[in-house]
Write a structure and sequence with these properties.
The chain is mainly beta. The chain is built from six helices and 101 strands. The strands form 25 sheets. Strands 44, 45, 46, 48, 49 and 50 form a six-stranded antiparallel beta sheet that branches. Strands 2-9-8-4-5 form a five-stranded mixed beta sheet, with no helix packed on it.
Length: 1430
């Protein structure tokens, strides 16, 4: 079976054409179909199957040599329909369509056209036999010459004046009369004259003679070579110039590149145009263009033009090509209207549209797309809007640059009528979007959807080179060459083939017109000469690279040659692989003896068996088939046939096989697959073998998805068949293991699809599981150059034996991955560029031997291991313990170093910087320790010019290695900076220096200490402290302990020394302490400086640290009660005015008011809740802010805690009220009053209390009452007075005043002493100050003030209610007590008083003012509390 046509879907080589005929005429639709298996062809009329038997004489179906026809006799109106021809085989189905329109003629008949035939056909009922003789052969011509092709046609029986239909085809395209080709029929001879040969005329010419009974064809190839160039070395002329697209202002011209470039690459092409009716040619482009398409502009609308193209290379210009067909420059819509109504017999159908609807704006155009894009132009096409009957629709085209929304109309003046438009003058490399609007007299419609972004440029790439060029012998003057198509080639035009005599290096084209197949017969070669061939592909972008040269082939006939070989023995085991109604696919096994030469093909014969009686043998194929499978066609359904097969080699055709079993020709309809075939056994060993097969030809209802292998011992019964694999394998090969040594086995294979498992294959010949003596396996090798190869040796070779290498049991024909070399009995498969795509099973089979074969599995792990070995062999390296690194040494020196694991004494090192070799010198110090393998290079410092790449190149014999270090950009700058820093550090440390630079710490006592660590000090070394450039003077000597200098930051004190020096002491740190602090060390060896910036952010960071220490020193938040409410408080070890705190209630910041306040007293931070209620219950917190996470102290003022605090508040509140309202002697009395006898004594004191107290006076602890001698008064509820009108000795004693109300009782005491009387010196009044000390009254005469009055004040109070002082006042109370302890407890007042006359109103008043009580501080309701401590 021909491999080119094996197992592929149907394809219409020639499709049926539509016809328009007149009533009562006959029409024939015909097509040519290819496909394997041969397709089954069915004709349909309006999708209904045509049955000729149902309409006798109406339809006639014929099929011959893949040409199928449908003839419709005497057409009527009912025959107007769409006809479909369907071709179907197991690989797929394909349909083609044609329309037949039957018209009734009502006008006059043009006598210049053939009249329709009326009446019975004269040849009706006659069967014609046609023979084409005296044929033309393969012909060769040259451009410009005239060539005639002719054949004699014999038609039997011969009817007078009967004219068959004679047609000429070139490459399956019907030829018509033109100035280039003339056709003539003389009655028995058909002639085709090519008046002026051009390369467009090259191709396969076919003469077809058609009669009522069928047709006969004859074909031969015509080659047209280039004419001699005017300039030596100029290229050949381009060909097939045509117009792809024509509009009113442009025409796009295309052409094909020539096969001959003259030995120099073609630089480009020039396009010429000529207006029809003139002979004036003008060049359209100024510079050559390489792309084989060009838009011609600058045309006059309505005029017609013809075009031609010339190629140019360095040597010169080619001849011009054949001119194109004339094309008019007009809108395609106008061109369609100008065609008008055809003559009646042309068969053209005129379709009249419905009346246009006026006044309707058209809708959006549909399916806008970019059909072609080059650097010179872009072609758009679209479909009109879906509405019908719209009035004269025209189009506007708009563009915009991608990414913008600025649309620009391209055809601003006149809209286009056709749904196709080309745009020019676009910027190459830019991306554009396009859209189209419809318009008519009613207006302009909405735009279409825009296209995707389109980049202006040649999108078409030059195709890749073809591959696998394989030549085979054909005739004594021709060779058949086949190749593998170019991969991913777009818009491929075809291929050019060149041939060269071996050793000449002169290449000649085999074809001058591209062929679009992958197989070609190269004619005109010299017999017995050896040629090599090559192929290249071509498209509009240009010609590809040439393929690799083929193997040499000797030109001579395929069979024969005088070689002393025997013909092969008969094939055997004929089986059926597929059966349809009129064809059967056969398979057979290779002959046991092939005759010593390779089998070149097989011939199949068949015969019909009727009632068990065989008929005459008929040839099924004239040309041999290379495969062991063939489709026998033209059989009759439900008939029985036998087959026989003959094998052929170079010695001839062997004897036929025995007749096969009798097979019934009926179409298979089973759902499961047919049998696999062509089973082959390889790699036979004592415990395993490999079985190969081919997939079934008949696939069944669904594609084959797996195979099962069966095995049994050769002499075992049929019931002994058992499966080898339980899971279906998708591959067509399988390694069968675990065989018994020396046992003989047979095998068969079954295929499965979704429907199930199909028929079994033919059983293999028995095979003995024995490893034959001398059996070798494939050996993998890696040579010293790192080349990986598979090696197989065979000792049983003969002269015709060949090594056949396969991957996954498919022969390797692509040399891009592997190269095969065979020398003697050793074959080597070399991996060109080993990679993951090479993973697979590799096998080698030796022909003309007793099945010598072996395989090797290249897995991913094995490939990785081989690649590592290959690399080590190819590039031996010196192993390194460490790569090139850089480090800094003392004094900022830079050391580059690496260490090799092993290096001999002969090893050498090159030191390279930026590709420049370095040498030993003042700048570079190199050292190579061959014992340790340490290689180093030392530089004193790095300069800007040292930026770059440093490389150490090692070589030790063949082994090499290198290591590089890139020092550029930031990396280099950082290293240079560090080196310079180390260098400076080294010099700095030669004198006094800082080991640790100036920093600060905050002690738990919140003292801020600046400190630094110093070294290399001596007695003469001086350390100076500065703040903001001013030297600081400490109150003590420089603190220095264990090499550490410290200084506490302090505020300037208010006290001054006698030396006027500034004295510093530790105090609260504040913003005044912010500044830049500096320490300077210096002596005769040098100096060093350390600076600490405590301004702005630096000071903020310091204070945040202080705040953190303060926060951490805070005590847990506690609850206390006062007479005003509930107070929450915490103590800190140290408080700073800059500290920020926030009080929270239920996780929300508290908004302070007159009722809720916060404040600070000393180191206590408090929150006062005045007159608390249940609404104040909840969780409270104080948050200390330190610039980071801060610290929170919380307390839960709810439940029992709130109840206890609230109860205590109520108690204290009541006690405060009692203390405030109890009876008391607000003004004091003197302790002792000494007065002269006879004088009048008046004492007055202030009384307070609510309600107004009761006042009682006592003498010697006995109550006294008011009388004339002693007058007791209590006025206004405030003032109590004690008056003795004239004192006498009986009045001496202890007097007391007792005040009392419901809140308490208090008393005041004084002692009255009487002295002897003195002259009356006047009246003296006594008044006490706030502390109870007696002073003289303001009315006492000055001369009397010299009298001495003595008295001792003793304050005595009895309190019935004790008041607890608040917690924050405890410290103040202590301080007050300490101050009072220094005062005298008693003060004695002595006065000399003259006797007061009776009736004197003068009084001695001793009053005591109430002691002032400091009020509690009232904090502001702000986040920043105010320090109220005094």
């Amino acid at each position: 079976m021909n491999e080119d046509s094996l197992m592929h879907a149907p394809n219409f080589v020639i499709k049926p054409r539509s016809h328009t005929v007149w009533e009562n005429q006959c029409v024939r639709l015909h097509c040519t179909v290819s496909g394997w298996p041969d397709p089954r062809v069915v004709w349909y009329k309006n999708n209904v199957t045509i049955d000729p038997l149902a309409h006798p004489g109406k339809f006639k179906l014929q099929s011959s040599y893949n040409v199928h026809s449908l003839e419709i006799n005497r057409c009527d109106f009912d025959d107007t329909a769409q006809y479909r021809v369907s071709a179907m085989n197991s690989k797929g189905e394909l349909s083609a369509f044609a329309s037949v329109v039957v018209k009734r003629f009502k006008g006059e008949i043009d006598e210049s056209l053939p009249a329709p035939r009326h009446g019975p056909v004269s040849e009706y009922g006659i069967t014609f036999k046609t023979h084409i003789v005296d044929t033309f052969g393969v012909s060769f011509g040259r451009e410009g010459e005239t060539m005639s092709l002719g054949c004699t046609v014999i038609i039997y029986p011969h009817l007078h004046r009967y004219q068959p239909e004679v047609q000429w085809y070139r490459d399956h395209v019907l030829l018509t009369e033109s100035k280039w080709s003339h056709m003539h029929w003389s009655g028995d001879r058909a002639t085709l004259t090519l008046t002026h040969l051009n390369k467009e005329d090259e191709g396969l010419y076919t003469l077809r003679v058609t009669t009522k009974s069928g047709y006969e064809t004859y074909s031969a190839y015509v080659f047209v070579r280039d004419s001699d160039a005017d300039v030596e070395g100029a290229p050949g002329a381009p060909l097939d110039v045509c117009c792809l697209d024509a509009n009113k202002d442009y025409i796009i011209v295309s052409w094909k590149q020539p096969a001959v470039d003259g030995g120099e690459s073609i630089l480009g092409y020039f396009v010429d145009r000529c207006e029809v009716g003139t002979n004036h040619w003008c060049q359209c482009n100024d510079t050559p263009i390489k792309f084989a398409r060009f838009p011609v502009t600058g045309l006059v609308e309505g005029r017609s033009y013809i075009f031609r193209v010339r190629a140019v290379n360095k040597s010169g210009m080619s001849h011009p090509s054949r001119v194109s067909e004339p094309v008019a420059a007009m809108d395609p819509a106008d061109r369609a209207r100008m065609r008008g109504t055809s003559a009646p017999w042309t068969g053209q159908i005129i379709v009249t549209e419905e009346e246009p609807a006026e006044g309707i704006v058209p809708g959006r155009p549909r399916e806008l797309q970019v059909t072609e894009a080059t650097k010179n132009y872009v072609v758009l096409s679209w479909k009109p809007p879906g509405e019908k009957g719209l009035e004269g629709v025209m189009y506007y085209v708009e563009k915009c640059v991608s990414g913008s929304d600025s649309w620009q109309r391209v055809n601003t003046e006149i809209p286009v009528r056709s749904p196709r438009f080309a745009l020019f003058d676009l910027a190459e490399g830019k991306s554009y979007n396009f859209r189209v609007r419809c318009c008519n007299s009613a207006g302009v419609g909405e735009p279409s959807d825009p296209t995707e972004a389109t980049t202006v440029g040649d999108k078409l790439d030059i195709p890749s080179a073809p591959s696998k060029v394989v030549p085979t012998r054909n005739t004594d003057t021709s060779v058949v060459v086949s190749w593998e198509a170019s991969h991913d080639a777009k818009e491929l035009v075809g291929y050019y083939i060149e041939a060269s005599l071996v050793g000449s290096n002169v290449w000649e084209p085999c074809n001058n017109k591209p062929v679009n197949a992958t197989r070609f017969i190269c004619h005109g070669l010299m017999t017995e000469e050896t040629y090599v061939l090559r192929v290249r592909a071509v498209n509009a972008a240009g010609l590809s690279q040439f393929s690799e040269e083929s193997e040499p082939v000797k030109v001579k006939a395929a069979i024969g040659g005088g070689i002393p070989h025997a013909s092969p023995t008969p094939p055997y085991g004929i089986s059926v692989l597929e059966c349809v109604r009129d064809a059967m696919v056969l398979a057979w096994k290779q002959p046991t003896f092939i005759g010593g030469a390779d089998i070149t093909g097989y011939f199949v014969d068949y015969r019909e068996v009727i009632d068990g009686v065989p008929g005459k043998w008929h040839e099924a194929n004239i040309k041999s088939v290379s495969e062991r499978a063939y489709r026998v066609t033209d059989l009759k359904e439900n008939k029985k046939y036998q087959f026989q097969v003959r094998a052929a080699n170079m010695a001839g055709v062997g004897i036929p096989s025995l007749p096969s079993d009798t097979f019934l020709c009926e179409e298979w309809t089973i759902a499961v697959p047919g049998p696999p075939y062509d089973l082959e056994i390889r790699e036979v060993r004592s415990d395993s073998l490999v079985l190969l097969w081919r997939a079934p030809v008949y696939q069944g209802r669904d594609p084959v998805n797996g195979f099962y292998i069966d095995i049994k011992e050769a002499d075992a019964p049929e019931e002994a068949w058992r499966g080898v694999n339980t899971k279906a394998t998708e591959k067509t090969f399988f390694k069968i293991k675990n065989l018994k040594e020396a046992e003989t086995y047979v095998f068969r294979v079954r295929a499965q699809n979704k429907a199930g498992v199909g028929k079994t294959s033919e059983v293999t010949d028995p095979v003995n599981a024995v490893t034959k003596p001398g059996t070798t396996e494939i050996v993998v090798d890696v040579d010293d150059d790192g080349v990986i190869s598979l090696n197989f040796e065979c000792s049983d070779l003969n002269a015709d034996s060949k090594f056949v290498w396969s991957k996954n049991y498919e022969e390797i024909t692509d040399s891009t991955r592997m190269t095969m070399e065979t020398k003697g009995n050793m074959s080597k498969a070399i991996f060109n560029t080993p990679g993951e795509e090479d993973i697979g099973i590799y096998s080698c089979f030796v022909t003309h031997t007793d099945g010598v074969s072996a395989s090797y599995t290249l897995s991913e792990e094995e490939l990785k291991k081989l690649l590592e070995i290959s690399h080590d062999h190819k590039f031996p390296i010196i192993p390194l313990k460490s790569e090139l690194a850089v480090e800094l040494m003392e004094k900022g020196r830079v050391r580059f170093w690496l260490q090799a694991e092993k290096i001999s004494a002969n090893g050498k090192v090159d030191y390279v910087f930026n590709d420049n070799l370095l040498s030993q010198g003042e700048k570079y110090k190199m050292h190579f320790d061959k014992d340790t393998g340490v290689i180093e290079m030392i530089m004193e410092c790095l300069n800007p010019e040292d930026e770059g790449t440093f490389t150490f190149q090692l070589q030790d014999g063949k082994a090499k290695n290198q290591s590089s270090l890139v020092l550029i950009g930031d990396v280099f700058k950082q290293l240079q900076k560090e080196s310079e820093f180390q260098r400076k550090e080294w010099f700095r440390k030669q004198g006094p220096h800082f080991i640790e630079y100036l920093s600060y710490e905050v002690t738990p006592e919140c003292c801020v200490v600046l400190k630094c660590k110093v070294g290399n000090m001596k007695k003469e070394t001086v350390a100076l402290w500065y703040k903001d450039g001013r030297e600081l003077k400490a109150d003590e000597h420089l603190s220095f302990a264990e090499g550490v200098l410290t200084l506490e930051i302090a505020q300037r004190g208010s006290t001054a020394d006698t030396d006027d020096d500034q004295v510093w002491r530790a105090a609260k740190i504040s913003k005044k302490d912010a500044g830049i602090y500096e320490v300077v060390l210096k002596d005769d060896r040098g100096k060093d400086t350390s600076t600490l910036n405590l301004t702005d952010q630096g000071f903020k960071d310091l204070m945040n640290l202080v705040f953190s220490v303060i926060a951490n020193s805070s005590t847990p938040l506690k609850i206390t009660s006062t007479d005003e409410g509930i107070r929450l408080y915490t103590f800190v070890n140290y408080y700073n005015d800059l500290l920020q705190v926030t009080w929270h209630y239920k996780d929300s910041a508290i908004a302070f008011s007159d009722r809720v306040k916060s404040g600070v007293v000393g180191e206590q931070l408090w929150l006062q809740i005045t007159e608390p209620t249940e609404k104040d219950m909840g969780k409270y917190a104080i948050e200390f802010h330190d610039g980071k996470d801060g610290l929170k102290r919380t307390v839960d003022l709810s439940g029992k805690a709130f109840d206890d605090a609230f109860a205590e508040f109520q108690r204290l509140k009541a006690a405060a009220i009692a203390e405030r309202n109890r009876a008391r002697v607000a003004g004091g009395l003197p302790d002792v009053v000494t007065i002269q006898e006879g004088k009048a004594l008046n004492l007055t004191c202030n009384i307070s209390g609510d309600p107004v107290p009761e006042v009682t006076w006592l003498k010697n602890d006995r109550e006294i009452t008011s009388d004339e001698h002693i007058i007791l008064k209590f006025e206004s509820g405030k003032f109590a007075s004690f008056t003795i009108t004239a004192v006498n000795t009986s009045d001496s004693g202890k007097y007391s005043i007792l005040v009392k109300n419901k809140y308490g009782t208090e008393s005041g005491d004084f002692t009255l002493e009487i002295t002897e009387g003195t002259p009356d010196l006047g009246v003296t009044s006594y008044w006490t100050d706030a502390d109870g000390n007696v002073v003289f009254g303001p009315n006492t005469p000055k001369e009397k003030m010299k009298s001495s009055i003595t008295g001792t004040k003793t304050k005595k109070r009895k309190e019935s209610v004790t008041k607890t002082p608040p917690a924050e006042k405890m410290e103040d109370n202590k301080e007050s007590k300490n101050k009072e302890s220094g005062k005298k407890k008693e003060e004695k007042i002595t006065a000399a008083v003259s006797v007061q006359p009776k009736g004197s109103d003068s009084e001695q008043k001793v009053a005591e003012q109430p002691a002032g009580t400091a009020k509690d501080p009232e904090p502001a309701a702000e986040t920043q509390p105010e320090n109220t401590k005094k």
